[in-house]
Design brief:
This protein is mostly beta strands. 8% of the residues lie in helices and 35% in strands. It is built from 3 helices and 38 strands.
């Protein structure tokens, strides 16, 4: 009789155990080699993903899983990728959740070794004298040239580059530019027209124009000067590399490989230059030499903590299904923070996404993916793309889009081109 009773208890325990969802715990002080219990948590998002893959192989995900992230910072130096291997089912969802909303932070920034600007620095003479004792410099990890700042609404190739973004004390620092707020005007374009029309005047691919300024002398010595201009229309902009600033001929030349060209009715194009070491003249500004991979920053304060976005994306999911991401902060990426491709029934709720060079959240293809109650702040190109078209669209519940960086002018905060996905 006792044997039968023990067997019944064991069987009932097994049934109850199988009916429970798996709970996994993650903490910044954990270990990805641990067993994921509250007493022995994992350490990273990637570690949690891999742990669930192991659990799936042993049949422990039949009822789904909840992965809980304790308060703290979780560095992401390389994009964490999810695939169909990480999917749940409609009856066994997988969720990744912050224990406390907004207190678990995924950060894609790099830790750099900063040092004061020295007189032996290659570009010491370009830095304004008043800035030299304030500017700090650091080498960026990796080898080879950094990508540039290419991008804009008159680019027929639709190419956009995101080399890096710099933050301090939770705020985006400004890439050095001149003028600080207003725009400069082109005096006259050179070259033969490749197009001529009543609305825009004529367009040339030569990329050379007259411009006279005492700043041309310093700009001619810049290692990587760029110009952001309204070269064809006042409502379509383009960032282009400056090939030459000529203080003798009083001209400037920009690359036109990735644009329709330059030209404007009555030669009235407007622009500003940026990434100029010679224009680091106030706290909170920076520039980078992409060839030597060296960054120059005048911090907002002496004790400012400088962050540089290192990871291109924080999360990229392809083919993922029946998964929830909830309550996190995702910040500091060189491109879009969270990208979902061909996913189904993936829900992002109560997230804070900020400090990106690209979009906050991007959804490509898929079906019934939802963005609900998220705060999107300080984003390079826009908030959510592309969502909100199709038969299931709903109005947003008043969550905010803050601080969208105005590059380029023709991009929206929320792109409405996609079908079968929702934001709420």
């Amino acid at each position: 009789m006792r044997l039968h009773w023990l067997f019944a208890v064991a069987f009932a325990s097994a049934v109850v155990g199988c009916s429970h969802r798996l709970e996994v715990h993650v903490s910044p002080s954990g270990d990805d080699g641990a067993n994921g219990t509250a007493a022995h948590p994992l350490r990273t998002l990637r570690g949690a993903r891999d742990f669930l893959r192991t659990c799936r192989a042993s049949g422990r995900l039949d009822r789904g899983a909840d992965v809980w992230f304790a308060d703290g910072v979780y560095p992401i130096s390389e994009t964490v990728e999810f695939s169909d291997l990480d999917s749940g089912t409609s009856g066994a969802l997988i969720s990744y959740r912050a224990v406390n909303k907004g207190a678990a932070v995924f950060v894609g920034s790099a830790e750099l070794a900063w040092s004061p600007l020295s007189s032996g620095d290659l570009h010491y003479g370009l830095i304004p004298e008043k800035a030299r004792r304030h500017v700090v410099t650091a080498a960026l990890p990796g080898t080879g040239h950094l990508s540039g700042f290419l991008g804009g609404a008159i680019d027929p190739k639709h190419e956009t580059e995101h080399p890096l973004s710099v933050f301090a004390d939770g705020c985006r620092l400004k890439l050095s530019r001149y003028p600080k707020e207003s725009l400069l005007r082109v005096e006259k374009f050179h070259g033969e027209p490749v197009y001529e029309g009543r609305c825009v005047g004529w367009i040339t691919k030569k990329g050379v124009f007259d411009f006279d300024s005492p700043r041309l002398k310093d700009w001619s010595r810049e290692p990587d000067l760029w110009a952001h201009g309204y070269w064809v229309f006042l409502w379509r902009d383009m960032a282009s590399r400056v090939l030459k600033a000529d203080p003798v001929g009083k001209t400037m030349s920009i690359a036109t490989d990735n644009s329709l060209g330059i030209g404007f009715k009555d030669h009235d194009a407007q622009f500003y230059v940026f990434n100029a070491l010679s224009e680091i003249d106030s706290p909170g500004t920076w520039a980078v030499d992409r060839i030597t991979r060296r960054l120059y920053v005048w911090p907002p304060a002496e004790d400012s903590k400088i962050q540089v976005a290192e990871s291109e994306h924080l999360v990229v999911a392809n083919g993922l299904q029946d998964v929830i991401f909830s309550g996190f902060v995702a910040e500091c990426s060189r491109d879009t923070a969270l990208t979902f491709k061909n996913c189904r029934r993936v829900k992002m709720t109560a997230l804070t996404v900020r400090h990106t060079s690209g979009w906050g959240i991007q959804i490509e293809g898929g079906e019934d993916c939802r963005v609900e109650g998220c705060d999107l702040d300080d984003l390079g190109e826009g908030g959510v793309a592309p969502l909100c078209a199709g038969d299931t669209r709903r109005a947003a519940p008043g969550r905010a889009l803050h601080g969208l960086r105005p590059l380029p002018a023709a991009l929206p905060s929320v792109d409405r081109r996609a079908r079968r996905n929702r934001r709420g």
